[in-house]
Design a protein that fits this description.
By secondary structure, the chain is α+β, with helices and mostly antiparallel strands. It has 15 helices and 22 strands. The strands form six sheets. An eight-stranded antiparallel sheet has the order 13-12-9-10-11-14-21-19, with helices on both faces. Strands 3-2-1-4-5 form a five-stranded parallel sheet. Strands 7-6-8 form a three-stranded antiparallel sheet. The radius of gyration is 21 Å and the shape is globular. It starts with a strand and ends with a helix. The chain binds adenosine-5'-diphosphate (ADP). The site of adenosine-5'-diphosphate (ADP) has 20 residues, from strand 6, strand 8, strand 12 and strand 13.
């Protein structure tokens, strides 16, 4: 059993890992930038180490500083959370070379899935259904135009190294191809240092459905059903739920088995998410995330498992504590992402929290690093909390979300809470009738957000 682990992250996800570690009797080390000296993760951890100035590049992304913090504190393993170094294969390689354990998949698996073309080829070979498109990279504009004609417009051009919605451009018709192709390449180059792009059929009304998988690294793997994360703004999720309102038990069992078998086949270790677009009863693979997702708590709620505890267990070489047969769905869960952002344009809104009160009661979980008087620094992501509700069924979860949002108090900064109050007035949200474009249309119509 590990005695001490280091968490290479901040905010709510750092607390999430510290909590799991504490329940397992494992001591925790927080790392922080000078801007985060008073942050909750620093207060809550057993020990903390300052690893650099505010800029993420020089602190949360500084591999030498994090490895040194491990050496100073004697931490044996590192949990990366999400974002920052969580999908950095080079980092994992360095930890392996230093005899430190990465709580997550191998460098090789991160590398394979981090390159979208390689990921798609790998998944295709493993029998996972993919979006029709170019086989591999598209080297010239002429090739792009030819492939566009072959697949049929609209198409989407994606940077193979892309992420977070960057490096993706839609061409509605052949006329758009040149601009879309060049912009996707340029964004790939400037954001990820790689201008290789590929082309996919652009699905017009899909839902975003992702399957949670978990492997022990020794050829055993399970799936924990799906999450529907279709409510997105600029390809960023804002509202997630499990199970998906449009997915039947048969579909779940079928696609879940395909995903679990695929990751078992490659001896995948730890938590992973296989993302699909879902349209007319068909699943189309888009990418795999080799880490814990922001929205993992909705899965935890309906299956009654602790995914972080499980990640720590398998990283130590222990078996998973459940089998596929142990995993049954209980009720319905919804998560909303609360960001310090000002509507209608979602401008980041850092500043001092003058009053904070978290909602509570049956079926309510608030994952947040806020406290009264906390100053949200301007240097990092604007996510300040995740409100997760669990009910016996979807209507109960929605009623609970409404009730919990009413109890939540975050004063001093603007937040996205009013967005959720407004969404809960919408019939489509109550009926679960939405796809990946629904929210952007709604924002345009109701807030004038373009
Ligand atoms: P990222 O790595 O930037 O998150 P993804 O490949 O996961 O990119 O895609 C993010 C989102 O972009 C999806 O959830 C969906 O909304 C949209 N998208 C991606 N591929 C397609 C496609 N082929 N057709 C329609 N929408 C797509």
């Amino acid at each position: 059993m590990f005695k001490k682990i280091l968490i290479a992250n901040r905010g709510e996800i750092a607390l999430r890992v510290i909590r799991a570690a504490r329940e397992m009797g494992i001591a925790s080390v927080a790392v922080h930038s000078t801007a985060d000296s008073d942050a909750m993760h620093v207060r809550m951890a057993d020990e903390s180490v300052c690893i650099g100035p505010p800029s993420s590049q020089q602190s949360y992304l500084s591999i030498p500083a994090i490895v040194a913090a491990c050496e100073i504190t004697g931490a044996e393993a590192i949990h990366p959370g999400y974002g920052f170094l969580s999908e950095n294969a080079g980092f994992v390689q360095i930890l392996e070379d230093h005899g430190l354990t990465f709580i997550g998949p191998t460098a090789e698996h991160i590398r394979i899935m981090g390159d979208k073309i390689t990921a798609k080829d790998t998944m295709k070979a493993l029998g996972v259904p993919c979006v029709p498109g170019s086989d591999g990279g598209v080297a010239t504009l002429d090739d792009a135009k030819r492939i566009g004609e072959e697949i049929g417009y609209p198409v989407i051009i994606k940077a193979t190294a892309g992420g977070g919605g960057k490096g993706m451009k839609v061409a509605q018709t052949a006329k758009d191809m040149e601009r879309a192709y060049q912009t996707a390449r340029a964004e790939g180059k400037s954001n990820f240092g790689n201008d290789e792009v590929y082309i996919e059929k652009y699905l017009t009304t899909p839902r975003h459905i992702e399957i949670q998988v978990f492997g022990d690294g020794k050829g055993r793997a399970v799936h924990l059903g799906e999450r529907d994360c279709s409510l997105q703004r600029r390809h960023q999720k804002v509202f997630e739920e499990a199970p998906g309102p449009s997915i039947t038990a048969e579909e779940r069992a079928r696609i879940g088995k395909v995903c679990a078998d695929a990751v078992a086949n490659i001896n995948y270790i730890g938590a992973g998410t296989i993302e699909f677009l879902y349209e007319n009863g068909e699943f189309y693979f888009i990418e795999m995330n080799t880490r814990l997702q922001v929205e993992h708590p909705v899965t935890e709620a309906i299956f009654g498992v602790d995914l972080v505890r499980e990640q720590i267990r398998v990283a130590e070489g222990l078996p998973m504590s459940f089998t596929q047969d142990d995993l049954t769905i209980n009720g319905h869960a919804i998560e909303v992402r609360i960001n310090a952002e000002k509507l209608p344009n979602f401008a980041p809104c850092p500043g001092k929290i003058t009053q904070y009160h978290a909602p509570g009661g049956l079926g309510v979980r608030m994952d947040s690093a806020l406290y009264d008087g906390y100053k949200i620094p301007p240097y990092y992501d604007s996510l300040i909390g995740k409100l997760i509700v669990h009910g016996r069924d979807r209507p109960e979860a929605i009623a609970r979300l409404n009730r919990a949002l009413g109890e939540l108090i975050v004063d001093g900064v603007d937040t996205t809470v009013p967005l959720f109050h407004a969404l809960l007035q919408e019939e489509d949200i109550h009926s679960g009738n939405y796809n990946i474009h629904w929210l952007e249309h709604w924002l345009e119509t109701n807030l004038g957000d373009a």
